[in-house]
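forwarding from the other thread:

> can someone predict this with adenosine-5'-diphosphate?

sure thing
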Amino acid sequence: MSKEREMEVWSALRGVKFPGMSRDIVSFGFVDRVMVNDETTRVDLVLTTARPEAAAAVKEDVERALAVVAGLPPAEVLVKVMAPPSPAQQAVSQDANLIPEVRHVVAVASGKGGVGKSTVAANLAVSMAKLGFSVGLLDADIYGPSMPMMFGITERPVVENNRMHPFDRHGVRVMSLGFILETDTPVIWRGPMVMKAIEQMLGDVEWGALDYMVVDLPPGTGDAQLTISQKVPLSGAVIVTTPQDIALIDARKGLAMFTKVNVPVLGIIENMSTFVCPHCGEATDIFKRGGGEKTAELLGSPFLGRVPLDPAIMEGGDAGLPVVVSQSEGPHAASFKSLAERVVSETAKQQPPKLSIF
Ligand SMILES: Nc1ncnc2c1ncn2[C@@H]1O[C@H](COP(=O)(O)OP(=O)(O)O)[C@@H](O)[C@H]1O
Ligand SMILES: [Mg+2]
């Protein structure tokens, strides 16, 4: 019964045009949800426009259109207005053709180093590949690229027709700044160099068609991170944190950074949350419990899950074999698998309206 009424609502909405346009709001993809129960008719609209008066006009038109549908309960119309992309973002979307065959780019970020960002990125990428997706892993950590070690890659990438080929490891195409840096001496990166290097890692690499590209970003929330997040067409970011308060404060800064560049935060992953004793297998909370969840709640961002502190995870990283490969049937592989599923479902939710009116 309510389904039929919802259909009636949808067809009424098809009669509502966007101000100044000949097309209706449904075909623009502006109608996010329709729900009819005994008391109310609820319509959620998501509009991308810089004209608040247009949003107000659409709301009134929708209310008017619903008022004439016989027998509908009173309408409640919610309008969410999203700002159109900033010039910086438009620059990104113009650059997006550097990797036109990549469907979703997911950044793994952290407010500070040493929280296990690279470990999570590597295991997440492999777990996504195990789910059946084609996956790339871009190590963009200019301060300390760690994918060469985490995947045990010591060779240089093959270059053909001026294009680098990523390495294929455990179903993931891996490319790292570490493969192209000349020496072990730390590089002092200046803005334009960061840009150039990132452009090369995107445009001059034979990535091929990918469902997901996981990007290991440098830790922190400074200029380099901002530059990279503007240069890479990110669909969303996951923030890795440890449960201590200090790390959580950094996680908040990370979230604020992505908000600044309008990149949705897909959620928070808590790493090293409990210690699993290698002898007896017992789990001990060495830090406070529940910090990641609390922070996620505070920030209004999903909590994606936790990864325990386990020497096996570190050994995997050191030996060039991520734990989800070396213990592919173990508990860590299972939790990374569910993390990967969460990231996939959160990414799917982030699809912006198909078209925007500026
Ligand atoms: N859950 C974990 N259990 C045990 N060791 C971990 C875990 N996560 C990361 N590590 C170890 O901690 C160190 C830092 O991790 P890394 O992923 O390099 O952090 P980041 O990229 O944030 O600097 C590495 O030696 C790594 O093997
Ligand atoms: Mg790292």
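The mean pLDDT is 86. thats all i got for now
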